[in-house]
Specification:
This protein is α/β, with parallel strands linked by helices. Helix content is 26%, strand content 32%. The strands form three sheets. A six-stranded mixed beta sheet has the order 1-2-3-4-5-6.
Length: 200
């Protein structure tokens, strides 16, 4: 699997591009800004992008969606319905034509399988995407921390349950969060206070 991490302005969000190297098909996760920079990285990787995956609907993860849609005709933009229902304010700006995905769904990207895990708490429709040995955790799980739950729609109880679920996944995974540095699930199980608090 090809994987590239971009730190995109204006809010320092981690945007990821991943793809099947053999099929040359790829996807973008959480394009929070800088559509030209994201498109340049896609070109450098030699991928045809047909999918945009949103881990949740906050503006700092969706800011470049409309600009990318104009440059990537036919691209499918996935968002959990619990966040789609809340679009239309400053925190979750309106997005046109998103496609729902939910817990248990699988999306194929070339020969890669993207498994959707509903991990609410930061937002009602937060998801984690499991692709091979990689977890795109959005603002659910950070290196040494977790997403805030004091914004509208947030829930401490829900994010604790989500962290418990992630901690219970069998094996180890690379953790690609929405902000800050990369980690591994093993390191987070061992050293993340919030995961220990959640009972993992």
């Amino acid at each position: 699997m090809l994987l590239k991490q971009l730190l995109v302005p204006p809010f320092g969000t981690n945007c990821y591009i991943f793809g099947d190297e053999a099929a040359k098909q790829g996807a973008i996760v959480d394009p929070g800004g800088d559509a030209p920079g994201i498109l340049s990285a896609v070109q450098d990787l030699g991928l045809e992008v047909r999918w945009i995956f949103l881990t949740h609907g906050h503006f700092d993860h969706t800011g470049a969606v409309e600009a990318l849609r104009r440059e990537l005709p036919g691209v499918t933009v996935f968002l959990h319905p619990d966040d789609r229902a809340k679009l239309g304010d400053e925190l979750m700006p309106a997005l046109s034509g998103t496609t729902d995905y939910d817990d248990g769904d699988m999306v194929g990207v070339g020969g890669l399988n993207v498994a959707v895990l509903h991990t609410p708490g930061h937002t009602p429709g937060g998801v984690t995407l499991k692709v091979g040995d990689t977890l795109f955790t959005g603002d659910t799980l950070f290196k040494g921390s977790m997403g805030r739950t004091d914004l509208p729609g947030g829930s401490y109880e829900a994010i604790m349950a989500s962290l418990r679920r992630l901690g219970g996944l069998e094996g180890d995974f690379k953790v690609c969060p929405g902000h800050e540095g990369l980690s591994t699930l093993a390191d987070e199980r061992a050293g993340n206070y919030y995961m220990r608090e959640a009972g993992t």
